[in-house]
């Protein structure tokens, strides 16, 4: 094992695992902190998916350190701390405190801070993070319920979360190439800077950064920064050339979609699936509370549909409806109610013969994976940037794709099946 990754949420873990797999590293995703003494699977890279983005700082730090120990014990030579490409966090964390703890553990004198993910419109210029054509604080992330992003300057954002010095490698330096970036790293380290925000607009920039950071024991960022790391291991003779499969052989069985994501992207994808004739049932949190709907009824409905098209179970709604439900139930209870129902439903669906599943939403994916008792995923082909098919590697014969709310083209739910054999 060469590279160990600690990801702060479930879909972010699949995102970075895909990036590594595409770049020729055989990658396995583990769900949660490995148990003490647990033998980790054979792989070039292992991604540990945590739920440490918004939980209390002390828990996030403890889980990240435990994951780091397990990865080091399995032979990791470099550790990547993967967070969201929109730097989802608050002034109290969790990105800064987790990075600080990992830097201390690894004796890292420098660590890149690079959430750039050009394929999904996340770029960094002069240390400012852009989402598409607008700065982060003007994007929909400004209204995120848990981690509203009201600033776009990564030096300020990181600086508010750590006591360590924060510096910048600007775009002109990236354009000047690997040696220039390395020289800037050395200068900043000499000035007492630990965290280096790095500009990046294109994949080529990420390759330069990856090469320049070959000797760093710790990196932090979005999945984009992983793109340039496999080349270093290959150059060092540690990583053989690997075939990347363009499709995934999937077990025979029914196909379906579970969506608890309320993002604009997901709602568009649901509309496209319904227009394509997929049988669809809307899940209503109020009905779940009153008992009008429950997991048995949802699974019963899904399994009663004709098998020629995947079924779609969705609670996704527009922001006005979601906030009306949250006003009635409370934000936490609304989320938990839906997640609990989908977790139980997923277990019943698997028992009923569903073996091909698409799930939309980070929290929803976490709940469904837990409901299915999944501990390990092997990474398959890319459906859209940041979202691969995966195969369950420690239990039932199933393929599953976990989609971040904001990711995927409008026809995501319709085209994904074409990659399965
Ligand atoms: N109709 C609804 N009313 C209120 N809450 C809902 C409703 N539907 C889903 N939810 C909750 O909203 C949350 C959606 O979060 P989730 O992480 O699954 O999606 P997302 O935020 O779009 O995705 P990501 O985190 O990947 O960006 C979940 O807690 C889910 O249970
Ligand atoms: O980096 C991203 O945007 C995603 O992988 C993610 O973390 C979604 O929660």
UniProtKB/TrEMBL annotation:
Location of the Four-carbon acid sugar kinase nucleotide binding domain: 257-413
Domain Four-carbon acid sugar kinase N-terminal stretches: 3-229
Enzyme Commission number: 2.7.1.217
Keyword Transferase among record annotations: yes
GO molecular function: ATP binding; kinase activity
Pfam families per UniProt: NBD_C, SBD_N
InterPro entries (alphabetical): 4-carb_acid_sugar_kinase_N (IPR010737), 4-carb_acid_sugar_kinase_N_sf (IPR037051), NBD_C (IPR031475), NBD_C_sf (IPR042213), OtnK (IPR050007)
Classification via NCBIfam families: OxoTetrKin
Similarity comment: family membership: Belongs to the four-carbon acid sugar kinase family.
Protein function: Catalyzes the ATP-dependent phosphorylation of 3-oxo-tetronate to 3-oxo-tetronate 4-phosphate.
Official protein name in the record: 3-oxo-tetronate kinase
